[in-house]
Amino acid sequence: MTDRYQAFTKNPIGKLLVKNLGLPDPTALERWSEGSALVKGTVALGGKGRVSDAVAATLAGLEIAVDTAPTAEGRYKGLVFDATGLNASTDLVALQQFFTPLLRSLDSCARVVVIGTPPEQVTGGERVAQRALEGFTRSLGKEIGRGSTVQLVYVAEGAENALASTLAFLLSPKSAYVSGQVVRVGATGTLEAPSVAWQRPLAGKIAIVTGASRGIGEQIARVLHRDGATILGIDVPQAASELQSVMKELGGDSLTLDITHADAPARIAHHVKETVGAVDVVVHNAGITRDKKLANMAQDRWESVISVNLTAPERITRALLDAEAINANGRIIGVASIAGIAGNVGQTNYAASKAGVIGFVDSLAEELTDGITINAVAPGFIITQMTAAVPFATREVGQRLNAMSQGGLPVDVAETIAWYASPGSTAVNGNVVRVCGQMMLGA
After folding, report:
1. b (16+ CB within 10 A) / e for 267-285
2. Which is catalytic among the residues 76, 154, 350, 420?
3. What is the distance, to the nearest Å, from the Cα of residue 197 to the centroid of all Cα atoms in its chain?
4. Do 407 and 3 meet the contact criterion of CB atoms below 8 Å apart?
5. Which residue of 99, 241, 274, 373 is most buried, as measured by CB atoms within 10 A?
């Protein structure tokens, strides 16, 4: 799918109208391609707190060039600021002192990451200052422009050395459509992350992807395979030929069934135990919509959406855990939606199911053992065959109403899931990250 408006803004007439009418002017986003460096440029590192030394060492390990004494005369592809040393509201001026001189020195599609301490883990003036970081990063994300992104990473004490997978994702083009997000590292779960080669972090791992025959699910399967995983794709019998075609191309395995059937969780667990023993990653991607305003909604529309989008992932996860079919340091990943956070007209059933996915993450994050984690993505407007069928005016509003003035691609969702899936993301647990280009409303 292509963005016709974005193409229009690049021709002479479009450029003239954009300039004279103040229309949105989306920047073509840089996305990572296999074999490329993580960061094509230098990252400036500032601030002084408990994570500075660990961040510098982590970036060096990721082969990212770092400037610890940046100046306005330099050119930078990223800015990282250690704000863990800010202990009072008066200390917040350090943000202005670091960023203001450097923002004009940023290349397009640059990355900004602020690192703080989880406010709930500190008190007094320090809690005030750390909570203020959210307003700062969300606002900067909406004004930075030129395809650049801004994130806040709250790092719990003891998790300073567990940042590699998160910085690799947030500083690279893999996070092209993720901005204005708050990530928590080390809030729950294991803090000691294994050393992982960032080029193929999933080498030797096995991943389940539901709804893997096409769309976002197919792209998730492809990206996880690119990162080294063997894929077990699951989809409904009606999609069997498409699923088998994708899995054959990726050298994976396929299983066709309706995940809402009573015996589906047991069948999946049995298949895993019989074929591979246990898996390392479970991605609950399968989902449906059955839109109607609540006043006109039949019960079967309600129940089918809840069953596919929420109840099935709960039941499948429980069956896999009970059968010990998820390896230690495994990953469970749900696909929520911005609709579950902001709501949508005509989608009470869908929004309830996707908000429920967030509740599913909350409920399991502290329960899981053996280093197993659970996280979710919440996509916004992603350009797919499904969104191509949305009426033109609605589609245009959906694509423009975010800080990047454009829709995302299925690969943007897949890259975020691949970050969660990495064995190096042991300390990333209980997060819901929105892949929405930082929507202006509800995000």
Report:
1. bbbebbeeeeebbbbbbbb
2. 350
3. 20
4. yes
5. 373
Residue 387 — very low, low, confident or very high, per pLDDT cuts 50/70/90?
A: confident
- Which residue spans of the chain are classified as CATH 3.40.50.720? 31-185, 206-435
pLDDT digits (tens, 9 = 90+) for 324-357: 999 999 999 999 999 999 999 999 999 999 999 9
And the tokens for 279?
A: 């898996």
Domain 206-435 annotated CATH 3.40.50.720: yes
Residue 143 CB contacts under 8 Å (≥ 6 apart), including other chains? none
Residue 96: φ, ψ to 5°: -65, -40
3.40.640.10, 1.20.1250.20, 3.40.50.720, 2.40.440.10: CATH of 31-185: 3.40.50.720
User: Is 149:403 a contact under the CB 8 Å cutoff?
Assistant: no
Do residues 227 and 418 make contact, with C-beta atoms less than 8 angstroms apart? yes
Q: Which residue pairs, CB below 8 angstroms and at least 24 apart, start in 337-341?
A: 337/378, 337/379, 338/378, 338/379, 338/380, 338/434, 338/436, 338/439, 338/442, 338/443, 340/378, 341/378, 341/434, 341/442, 341/443
The tokens for 277 are: 């023993």
pTM given for the model: 0.95
Coil, strand or helix at 135? helix
Ordered strands of the 149-155 beta sheet: 65-67, 42-46, 76-82, 106-116, 149-155, 181-185
Alpha helices in 261-347 (DSSP H): 264-275, 299-306, 312-322, 339-342
Helix (H, G, I), strand (E, B) or coil at 33: coil
Burial class (CB in 10 A: 0-12, 13-18, 19+), 143: exposed
Can you tell me the distance from the alpha carbon of 78 to that of 172, in angstroms, rounded to the nearest whole number?
A: 9
Residue 443, pLDDT above cutoff 60: no
| Statement: residue 113 has pLDDT above 80 | yes
Contacts of 73 (CB under 8 A, 6+ apart): 105
Q: Would you call 88 exposed, middle or buried from its count of C-beta atoms within 10 A (0-12, 13-18, 19+)?
A: exposed
Rounded CA gap, 228 and 162, in Å?
21
Does position 389 have pLDDT exceeding 80, yes or no?
Answer: no
3-class DSSP assignment, residue 151: strand
Helix, coil or strand: residue 412: helix
CB-CB contact of 77 with 102 (8 Å) = no
Query: What residues contact 144, with CB distance under 8 A and at least 6 apart?
Result: 103, 106, 110, 112, 150, 403
